[in-house]
Amino acid sequence: MKIVKYALFAIGGLAALVVLAVAVLLATFDPNKYKSELSRAVKEKTGRTLSIDGKIALSFYPSVGVAVGKTSLSERNSDRNFARIDEMKVSLALVPLLSKQVVVDRVTLSGLDVELVKDKGGKTNFADLAGAGASSAPAKTPASKSAQAHAPMALDIAGIEIRASSVGWRDESTGARYKATVDELKTGRIASGVPGKLSLAARVEASEPKADYQVRLSGDYRLDFEKEAFSFSGMDLSISDATPGSKKPPLSLKGDVELDASPQAIRFTLAADQVNLDRYLPPPPPKPAAGGAPSPAKAEEPIDLSALRGLNLKGDLKIGQLVASNVKLEKVHLGVKAAGGKIDAEPLTADLYQGKLSGAASANANTDRFAIKADLGGVALGPLLKDALNNDMLEGKGNIALDVQTGGNTVTAMKKALAGSANLNLKDGGLKGLNLDEVIRKLKKQPAQSSSQRTDLSELTASFVIKNGVAHNDDLSAKAPLLRLSGAGDVNIAANAIDYLAKVSFVASSTGQGGKDLGDLAGKTLPVKIDGALDAPQFHPDFSALLRDVVKQQAGKAEDKLKERGRDFLKGLIKR
After folding, report:
1. Phi first, then psi: what are they for 232, rounded to 5°?
2. d(CA 329, CA 377)
3. What does the alpha-carbon distance between residue 406 and residue 409 come to, in Å, rounded to a whole number?
4. Which of 98, 271, 430, 461 is the most buried (most CB within 10 A)?
């Protein structure tokens, strides 16, 4: 018993000595005395200047922690600033370290400012910190049985808080600048299998294309370190234009996302109110002034699909209102699957221009091939063509069937490689740019009744075979009260040009568009050449061909009358 008693006294005395030693250490140790030594070591090791202007405070119980005040780090062998912080605090719990568990109290960071730069030669100002130029790592050897038996160290952080911090990127070869500023980031507990909450308020700025967005994100997360998985549920993302005076509505995205790092996989179910993809694309080049020479064309930026080759994705996206290439859609539903470098979008449904869209699309990142098959029913073609092609030649409601494929790594290349087929069926519409009724009145030397440049069409059908970016048609058929329309020609999508010959045949009718009797025009054909830019076509009626047809008919009638008179004269002679 005495041995136990003496042992307890010894342990108690040892504990007292430990407490006394810690107290003396805390009272006498000043880490700020070692600032110069620390700066000297950083200079010798990295060639960078470390300046610690704020105080360094240490804590040892109940956790090991450090708090650092204003600190800055220069670029390598330069006085230019690379990074700075106003304040950082972090501490580790002592007891869990004995069982290889890293339990961190709340980490706080404020005033972080990092400027990442790539010079004109392609070298970055952080390459040395990232280990660039270091000797390659030795070949991996199989882990020993003892190493395999040891479980990985567990990570447990009470939470992270970051305020008033930013990271910038500047590419001196292109002049592009980007900056992400975190106004506030807060997380809950970060530990494997433990749910937490996240909130973020940030700002993202870019020079090319010019952008300035305010980002807000919140939701519930769960991490699984063993499975290398991450899930984010109840996500609420808002992206709004921070440009002064902007009235653009924010992009709002809600839903659930799951990420698996090994093997890489993404699963999502998302819904958005409004999405305008055109806002994230660079503006089109300005058109040259009238009579002025066009500005030199810039080389097209290639479309890089390499990031999609390793993508494993499955998701469902719904968008209330979508704008893409100036085409406006509503109630968009898109199912997406991606694997092995191929992406399939099916189903693909939407409401657009008073009609319905139903179809499927695909992209192959291995071959840079794209395909789309779609049916549009009951669509108002005038507004659709105006928005999609800046062309409003046709009006009316109709059905469109589209089955096209293309390939290439630029928009121009894809236009030139476009192939497939398209079919159009239009009811109760009109052809804009030419009023054939007024043409008839002009030919008959009758006064004009309308200044409208529109020809009514009760129906119109046409099919197109598309090859190498050129859509060829030879079965145009259209009906109007006073005429029938046929035609053949090419629509060069790649060159934004049209080369088409329409033939207007006049029918005997006394009504329609306020028309009168056609008289000598009945049964005649007026050729109409359509050419020029696809978004500004020119119409060239060939009146001389029509007049030749009329004169030919009149000449034929005169010849018939002459023959009839000759027969009458012969009959008279015989009677005598």
Report:
1. -135, 110
2. 14
3. 10
4. 430
Q: 398-430: b or e for each residue (b if 16 or more CB lie within 10 Å)? A: bbbbbbbebbbeeeebbbbbbbbebebebeebb
Q: Distance (Å, rounded) from C-alpha 128 to C-alpha 130?
A: 5
3-class secondary structure, 325: coil
What is the pTM for the complete model shown? 0.70
* 313-324 and 264-276 beta bridge pairing: parallel
Tokens of 306: 């390499």
- Cβ atoms of residues 528 and 500 within 8 Å: no
Contact at 8 Å (CB) between 361 and 350? Answer: no
Q: Who's near 320: CB < 8 A, 6+ residues apart?
A: 271, 272, 273, 274, 330, 331, 332
| C-beta separation of 185 from 199 below 8 A | yes
Count of all residues that appear for the chain in the document: 576
Q: Where are the beta strands (DSSP E) in 17-175?
A: 50-52, 56-59, 63-68, 71-74, 81-85, 87-93, 101-104, 107-110, 113-118, 154-157, 160-171
Here the contacts of 29-35 (C-beta below 8 Å, separation 24 or greater) are: 29/58, 31/56, 31/57, 31/58, 32/56
Interacting residues of 358 by C-beta distance below 8 A, sequence separation 6+: 347, 348, 349, 374, 375, 377
Identity of the residue numbered 556:
G
CB 550 within 8 A of CB 557: no
For 290, phi then psi, to 5°, come to: -60, 125
Per-residue pLDDT of the chain (576 residues; tens, 9 = 90+): 444 444 444 444 444 444 445 554 455 557 777 788 888 888 888 899 999 898 888 776 667 788 889 999 999 888 889 999 999 998 877 777 666 667 788 899 999 999 999 999 889 998 888 664 444 444 444 544 444 444 555 678 889 999 999 999 999 988 899 999 999 999 999 999 999 999 999 999 998 778 899 999 999 999 998 888 999 999 999 999 888 888 788 889 999 999 998 778 999 999 998 888 887 666 665 555 555 555 555 677 788 888 888 889 999 999 999 998 889 999 999 999 999 899 999 999 999 999 999 999 999 999 999 999 999 999 998 888 888 877 777 788 889 999 999 999 888 899 999 999 999 998 887 777 767 666 666 666 666 666 677 778 888 899 999 999 999 999 999 888 778 889 999 999 989 899 999 998 877 654 444 444 445 667 788 888 999 998 788 888 887 877 777 667 666 555 455 445 434 433 443 444
Q: Among 365, 357, 351, which Cα is nearest to 407's?
A: 365
By DSSP bridging, strand 195-207 and strand 176-187 are: antiparallel
CA nearest neighbour of 270 among 279, 257, 283: 257
DSSP 220-271: EEEEETTTTEEEEEEEEEEEEE-STT--PPPEEEEEEEEEEETTEEEEEEEE
Type of residue numbered 400: I
Residue 438 CA: distances (Å) to CA of 101, 441, 449, 455, 541 = 88, 5, 7, 9, 12
Q: Nearest Cα to 324, choosing from 361, 293, 291?
A: 361
Strand 107-110 vs strand 160-171: parallel, antiparallel, or unpaired? parallel
Please give the C-alpha separations between residue 29 and each of 40, 68, 154, in angstroms, as whole numbers.
20, 16, 31
Closest CA to 87 of 59, 58, 109: 109
